[in-house]
Amino acid sequence: MNIVSAGMTIKWWHFLTVVTVMSITGCGQGGAAAPPPAAADIWGRTFVSAPTAPDEESRELVEGTRLRLGFESGTVTAEAGCNHLTGRAAVDGDRLVVSDVGGTMMACSTELMDQDTWLTDFLQQEPRWRLDGDTLVLSAGTTRLRLVDIRSAEPDRPLTGTRWSVESLLDGEAAASVPAGADAHLSFQGGRVTGSTGCADLDGAASIGDGSITFSRPTTRKRTCTPDLESLNRAVLDVLKGKVAYSITGARLTLTRADGGGLDLRATS
Asked: Using one digit for the tens of pLDDT, what is the confidence trace for 7-54?
């Protein structure tokens, strides 16, 4: 999958979390084999790393990061604190088969890049998976990841009254990060959208419907900007036109035009 980036380091979470790392042993002889999980149960859901139990040996993630895995129609999306990763995904019995993993190319610290590589390698080991309600366990080799459904761990933020910062520009199945240092954000309140394109302040009408927002073209007060921020300004304004679909999962808002273009935003207040 071809995913490009303008380069930006983003820290999305502000707490320390760990993932379980332990030896995985087989079941004793004579025990009945557990039936494989139902594949349909995993699709359309997003999971985030969960704290380990006090008696579990743990691997500490980079401070301020959290693992995130999303499963949708044969695709897995993943985050480990730096890049947005995407790959093909299929379920083969109790195995999760992931291939063709690609990602944005944001300029992150070495420890964050290493964590991205570690997660990518883990997913491509065809880990075993088990789903128990809202808890997903993936295991490969001596590593076990315990994750929980994001709707349990991180309730959906309200659309209105939240400051949404733009993290990525969407173009069908591709995503591009915003320029380093850009501060593009949106807020919805009282039938209006306000915020910044990263290059201009904006204010316009926004009629919120069931799963959609209808924008009138916002007025802007532009500043002198670099070429990268000029491009970001155009990209944001191109999305805020007419009827646009929206969805919220946890602290993430996605705005999508009919042609597949859009914005990926995260709640920052």
From this structure: 333 333 333 344 444 433 344 444 444 445 566 789 999 999 876 544
Question: Tokens in use for 147?
Answer: 């994750």
Distance, CA of 163 to CA of 160 (rounded, Å): 8
| Residue 227 CB burial class (10 angstroms; 0-12, 13-18, ≥19) | exposed
Q: Distance (Å, rounded) from C-alpha 128 to C-alpha 93?
A: 9
- Hey, how many other C-beta atoms are within 10 angstroms of the C-beta on 73? 7
Rg of the chain over Cα atoms, rounded to whole angstroms, equals 20
In degrees, rounded to 5, the angle at the alpha carbon of residue 235 between the alpha carbons of residues 71 and 217 is 110
Bridge partners for 34 per DSSP: none
Across the chain, mean pLDDT equals: 82
Write down the pLDDT at residue 30: 45
pLDDT tens for residues 161-176? 999 999 989 887 677 8
Q: DSSP readout, 101-135? A: EEE------HHHHHHHHHHHHHHTT--EEEEETTE
Distances (CA, A) of 228 to 56, 94, 135, 163, 231: 46, 45, 41, 23, 5
pTM for the predicted model, two decimal places: 0.61
**H helical segments located in the chain:** 110-123, 150-153, 227-239
